[in-house]
Specification:
The complex is a heterodimer of chains A (about 190) and B (about 110). In chain A, about 65% of the residues lie in helices and about 0% in strands. Chain A has 9 helices and no strands. The longest helix of chain A is centred in the middle third of the chain and has 27 residues, at about 60-85. The radius of gyration of chain A is 27 Å and the shape is elongated. The termini of chain A are far apart. Chain B is built from 4 helices and 3 strands; from the N terminus they run H-E-H-H-E-E-H. Chain B has helices spanning about 15-25, 40-45, 55-70, 105-110, and strands at about 30-40, 75-85, 85-95. A 3-stranded antiparallel β-sheet of chain B has the order 1-3-2. The chains are: A mainly alpha (about 190), B alpha+beta (about 110).
Chain lengths: ~190, ~110
Amino acid sequence: MHSSISQVDLQILLHEADIAARRLVRQLRLPRADLDDVRQDLLVDLIARLPAYDAERGTLGAFAGAILTNRATRIANKAKRERRMYGATPISLDEVIPESDGLTRGDLIAEADGLSALFGQPADAFAAAEHRLDVERGLGSLEPADGALCAALSRTTVDRLAAGGHGARSSLYRRVKDIRLALTAIGVRAA
Amino acid sequence: MNVIAPRLPAVRKPLTEIDLCGWVGQAAPGDILEYHRGFLALDTMPQGTRLAERERTELARVARRAWWAAERGLIHLVQRRHRSDDYSYLAIARPKPKLASVSLCSLLLAEAA
């Protein structure tokens, strides 16, 4: 059963959405600039669900509260997923570095360093060469069949190797585990 | 009146295979690790009762890996006897051997062929 929304009710919804957005931004420690986007996200979802509001079942405030809570949870989960993938906070290449005469983050990273430099991974060519030498030394300590497996895994997955008849999936994973242990003992650092 | 607290034996978390490998990988020559205290032959027996099955299985892996590392010249294996059924099993890190490297490129080319 549909109910009409008065101007007063609309103001209440806007106010509730604003409070929910501020709470979410604070909890997730999002940049202040995200507040408007979060508020709009919450409002759009709430307005889209308004046709389902029935005044006989409860107050508009309770209805809005439930909708906003659910939407806020989904936004929070999405933010946490992105953080797991990309790190604690997203970085912008256009972000100006303080006390650097207007230099941006992008100005400090050479194009040759690649994407990994943006995420704080070492971009030192000497370190990369040493790591490669360590890897080759580690490969020399493996059985030839395990070395071949390592080479194969550089271009395909265990599942595909198993599907191609190169061994059972479980035994391939066991070998990979064994190889990791052997390389760790040799002193080859994980990438 | 003074109360002397009883000396409790130190409780140590059993070493796992990855712990041992990690130690071997970063140990400096001469570093010593006690990778087991007890009697390995008994402690790894399937019929043994000194350890739970899970711990026994992991200990067997640790012992095999220690032997593997010794065969590759990464560690020396020694034992210190305390009693007839109580030994300290020690791994002493050796200088990393100059292993023959395998060229990554040749490995990848061979695989692609």
